Every structure is written in C-alpha cells, then in structure tokens.
Amino acid sequence: MRADNPMKTDNPSVNTVDAHKGLDQYFKKLNEKLWQIAKRPVKLMEVCGTHTMAIGKSGIRSVLPPQIELISGPGCPVCVTADSDIDVFMRLARNPNILLATYGDMIRVPGTEGSLAELKAQGADIRVVYSALEALEFARSVKGKEVVFLGVGFETTAPATAQAITIAAQEGLANFSVFNLHKTVPGALKVLLDDEAAQIDGFILPGHVSIIIGEKPYRFIAEEYGISGAIAGFEPPEIMAALVRLVKDINAGTPSISNMYRHAVRPEGNVVAQKLLADTFEPCDAEWRGIGVIPGSGLAFRNEFAAFDAVKKFNVEKQPVKLFPGCRCGDILKGTIKPIQCPLFDKRCTPDNPVGPCMVSSEGTCAAYYLYQGSDDLDG
Amino acid sequence: MISMDKIRLAHGSGGEMTARLIEEVFFSALGSDGKNANDSAVIDLPAGKTAFTTDAFVISPIFFPGGDIGKLAFCGTVNDLAAAGACPVALSASFIIEEGVDIAGLKQIAQSMGAISKETGIPVVCGDTKVVDKGSADKVFISTSGIGVIPEGIDYHPRNIRDGDIIIVSGSIGDHGYCIMALREGIDIKSSVISDCRPLNELVGLLAPLGDGIRAVRDATRGGLGMVVNEWAQQSGRGILVFDSLIPIKKEVKGGCALLGLDPIYMANEGKMIFAVAPHKAPEALLLLKDHPAGEDAAVIGEVVGGKAVVRVETEWGTKRILPAPRGEILPRIC
C-alpha cells in the first residue's frame, strides 16, 4: 500500500496547462485535502456506471489515500439486465416482422442463446439508436414492419421513452412498441444497504439520475441507515469534491445527502420529466441481474399505454434461465467482491468474449477493471 | 456517351459496356489514354528495397466533407507506403460497384482519385471493375494496392524504438472519424471539422535526412492513436507514456465525441502520422514537420519510458492510468 500522496510533487507536470482553466489545480487541492482528512479505512461506492468509467479513465484511484477504497455498484443499465430479459429480446429480434431498435451497448450482451450482434449477422433487422425518438422515426418511416424499442436505463433514459410513447399514442402509430426494462435507482440502494456483506460507508450518487429525481429520494439513506451520499458530476474535480465531502461527513459522524452537482441538479429535480414519468409509468417489481427482484424498482406502462407494451403485443413470456457457471456478476454489482475476484475474470470472460453484461457494457464494472486495472500499479 | 445514368449489371459483363465505362469514367479521370492497357502494368523500379501494400475501402457515406472514397483509397495506400519510409511509385485500384449506382457519382470518385494522383505525381497504373447485384455491396467498394521504393538507410519498423524516444503526432487527431460519425448520426457539422484525408508521403519524406533518428512511423487509421502506441509498446517490448493534455484535438471533435460517447484517441485519422524519434533528433523533426502544411499542428505527445510493455497516460488531472488498446467495434466502416 502506498504511503505518500503521489500528487505531492515539486516536479511540474507537463500537462498542467491552462486547458482546464485551473480545474486541475482545484483537483489537486481537493486531493491534498483528502489526504489530510482520510483517517480510517472507508469503502465508498459509486452507483453510476458513468462514474465507474470516469473514475477508471481519469486515473483517480492512482492518487487516492490508501484508506479510501472505491467500489462500483449496480448503476449500469446494461449490467443489471436479467438474462431472462435478454432471451426475450432475442426472441423478438428473431421475428422477421420486427425491426428491433436498441442502444448500442445491448448489441453484444450475451444471453443464454447468444447476442443480438450474432442475430444481426444472421440477417435480423436490428438497428442501433441514440434515443427512443430515433426508434419512433423508424416506426414512422418503415412500412409493414413492427418497430420494437428496447427501453433500458434508469430515470435518465426513461423520460425519453415516455415521450416517445406519448407521441406514438398521439399519432396513433400502430407499429411501435417498447420492451420496457426501465428501472429506478433508489430501490437498488436500499437492497445494498440491507446487504450486510457490502458494508458501504458512503455513496457517490449518480449525477444524471439526480437531474431528474432531485435530492429527496435519497434522504432515507442518511435518515434511516445513517450513511452519507453525495450527488456528483462526472468531471474528476467533481468526483474528488464528493469524496472529500463524504469523508468529512464520516469523520464528523453526521450523515447527510449533499448535492455537489448543483449547477445541474436542482433539489426538486426536473419536475416536467417527473410528471412525464408519472403520467406514463407506474412502479412495478423488476428483476435485476444477479440481485433478483427488487419490489417497486421497475417502471411499467400505465393501462392507457398498454398497446405499446411489446410484452403484451407479442405475447412474450420470460423463462427462468441458469446463469453461466461461476459468473459472479451479482456479487460484483453489490460491491461484495471486486471483478478480479470473479473466477471468470480475464479468463473465460473478457471484453472480446464476455460472459456477463458487466464485461460488455461501456459502463460496466468489469470492463472498467479490465481496461484500467493496471492503473493502480503504474510504477510497479 | 454512356446512355444510362445508373450502373447496370451489364457494365460488369466484360463486354462493350464495361469497356465504355472504363474508358469514360476511369481512363479519363486517371489520366490514361488506355493505349498501353494490358493484363499487367510494367513498372521500372529504382534501386532499393520495395514496399508493397494493399487495402480495401468500404466507407459509408462515400462522400464526406474533405473527400470521398476515391481520395480516401488513394491517400490510404500512399500513406501506408509512406509509413514504411517508401517513396510511392505506382498504385492499382479495383472497384466493386453495386448495381444502380449513379454513374455521375462514380465519375466524381474517379476524378477525385485522378486529381490527387496528378497532385502527388503517383500514377494509378492498373485496375479492375466488377458490378454486383443490388444489395450485394454498399454503392462502391475500392481495393487499392501500392508499390514504393525505400531509400537506403531507412527502416521505420517499431523494433527500432528505444527508451527515451519521443512520440510525435503530425496534427490534430480524430477529425476523420468524427466527421464520418457525425454525418452518420445526423449531427450538423457546419464547424471546421472536415476529414483530414490527405497524402503524407511528402511530409514523411522530409524526415528522411534524419536517418535512423526516426525510429518508427505509422499512420493512425482505424483504432487511431490509441492503437498505434499500443502496437508499438507490444512490438518494441517497451513502456510508452503519453501526456493527455499535449495531444492536439480540435475542440469540436472533443465535444462531439463526448456527445457520442466516443474517445478521439481511438478515432480514425486519414491524414495523420505518428513518429517515434530519437531524443536528440526530436526538435529538428518537429521543426521539419511544422514547416509543412500537413504537419503545422505537429506536437510532442509522449515518450518511450521502458519498463512493462504497456501504454500509460498522464491525464490532464495529473493522475496516471493505463491507455488500453481499443476493443471491439468502435466505429463501423469509417475508412
């Protein structure tokens, strides 16, 4: 374990140019502060996949005091997609009358019967889109085909799906539907807090999700569990600021939910998006890969939008599936083990040949570890 | 004149329509009168080692700001030769054309290839055309090969890389990849970002007087800068350190890539070379590059540091991390 702050150096770095208008100096100062206040070992979890990648890519771990352990939570929508759901959309994609529109990351996720990428190579009509509205556009322009959009993601992407459905309903588009896998974050946090094996001292809370839901849905973390949370943006100084805040809270024994992303996150969140979500969806139980069913953590279409529910439209049913032997995705998502502790990591499971979604997704914990794991030992 | 304005299967029959297509579209554009046409081109090669390369171009869309598939195919092959330190002597070009393609578009592609051939003085000496059923190809695919001569004393293989060598890039990275991706995603690029597609043989040739001070040269096409430095680390068995903030990247490219969830360091370039240069020759190499229009934004971006054969990057935050090789499909069909 390293004892010295690697950022404390008189050697001017060639890259401390003005590119960040002093943000790099701010980052350095925050890091120095963290080294001053980090007294006892703490385990802090980032629950958002974008944070996981930002932490890996910015090399933050390489400059943290040894007392600070960052672990990754279940915040990647691809990673938490259940195998049984993957098999359902594989069945949908095999239907020659269906054009399946999906976010890029889902293409390579393997289910028990292969991946969408394999089906695409065999001729299935699968299109990668950047938004639900793009899928809607396909439904308008492609005649004689059913367009099914894979609605994955948390509170961040769900409003776009809600908007697409609302427009489709207004236009009376009969050939558009959504396989709805949207999930909500607070319920998953509760499961992590109830899991004694995880023993998390604080949460770096997701910036994008918080833009929609605001601060209130996290308050139970501090009030009921006595654990701190800090909403953070995705730039390294913003993540560092959240770490400093969490350690200060832990030292003082004053758990709180702080908003370190105030320029983007309003305390009340985005009320327009919240209304759109409430008008379109209602809470339902949802299955999270490796974690199981979390009550109330899913978003089901309200009755008036039932015609756009691909499950009902195509009468698809989920079948129970057996996870690949040895796959520890669930434990990784809960932060109870690190990816390198999974027996498949970097052996049977690599980004080129992934077993589980954690290794496939560009925001996946395992992918981040695989790409950047050596970063912790750069001088070795 | 060809009576039809679209390519028909008969244009690939080998008969009269093929002959007319070649004559009216290709010979005129590529500056050949066709009189010497035979089954093979016969070339007089000057003395020296011969470099020989081949490449296939299947880009979509085939026309883009800053070029088209014809210019791209020509420059791509010239740059492959240049990266070996070779002076390009001649190229071949083979066209696979989808039935129904506009002949006017095909002419434009051939003419753009011809224009760059004239500009560089590198002839396209032989070629082929095939027409395939509609749906069997995406408009036009071009396969090019090139032959060049490597002057005495030039060896740009990455095995020459030594500890302490300086890594230089000839200009801003990611322009081509971003330009194509933005087009595909319907992003409005009224900004200055156009493909950097251009021949680099002259630029690389400027460094020839530095002899073995130039250790390795590579054009950063698919996989981008990230792939080149990782290959160099593996091939030389040495660690490379890259400084994030020194890498020239256009603001629009950086912002656009962030929007699309892409990393410019892995984006394709069609007019950028990466050089590994001995430290005592690096200042001179940089000056020579900067003196040429294709290298005016050249910059030192890293150094060979020894140790494990991995690429590390010192981030703009002063932290360090591994710079992994790109994995999986990053951008389909961009070069």
Description:
The complex is a heterodimer of chains A (380) and B (335). Chain A is an alpha/beta fold. In chain A, helix 6 packs across helix 11 (271-280). Chain A starts with 22 loop residues before the first helix and ends in an 8-residue tail after the last helix. In chain A, strands 2-1-7-8-9 form a five-stranded parallel sheet. Chain A has a four-stranded parallel sheet with strand order 4-3-5-6, sandwiched between helices. In chain A, strands 10-11 form a two-stranded antiparallel ribbon. Chain A is globular. Chain A has 15 helices and eleven strands. Helix content of chain A is 37%, strand content 16%. Chain B has 335 residues and is an alpha+beta fold. Chain B is built from eight helices and 13 strands. In chain B, the strands form three sheets. In chain B, strands 8-10-7-11-9-12-13 form a seven-stranded mixed sheet, sandwiched between helices. In chain B, helix 2 (69-83) packs parallel to helix 3 (103-120). The longest helix of chain B is centred in the N-terminal third of the chain and has 18 residues, at 103-120. Mean pLDDT of chain B is 92; it is low at 331-335. The interface between A and B is medium-sized, with 31 and 22 residues.
